[in-house]
Amino acid sequence: MSDLERSRKFYEGQLGLDGAATPGGWTVSGDYGTVINLLPEIPDAGSAGWPVATFRVDDVSATVRELRSRDVPFLGPDDIPFSLDGDGVSTDQAGLRVAWMRDPDGNILTIYSLSS
């Protein structure tokens, strides 16, 4: 079961997404059409072992640095099977720059930008 207030602090406060009440919980939204439903009554919150949401950003390295300054926890080289640069960003996927983080329930989230 998820703590809705803790999740809202993370998604709205730390990630900077916009939130609104929705039936059964809360919805947060961001750029490029990103929408996440926070449903506190789901008993297996945080149990997925893969990214449950992906956010596109303009510059993933700058976004990682900004989010780290807000205490967002990112996955490191021991957590994922990709090489990472000094910012914790992978360029192993053709055309993408990718980083992975965890929300308060342990869900893995991905942020990415297109390689130039």
Automatic annotation (TrEMBL):
Classification via Gene3D superfamilies: 2,3-Dihydroxybiphenyl 1,2-Dioxygenase, domain 1
Superkingdom of this protein's organism: Bacteria
All residue ranges annotated as the VOC domain in the record: 1-114
Protein name per UniProt: VOC family protein
Species per Swiss-Prot/TrEMBL record: Actinoplanes aureus
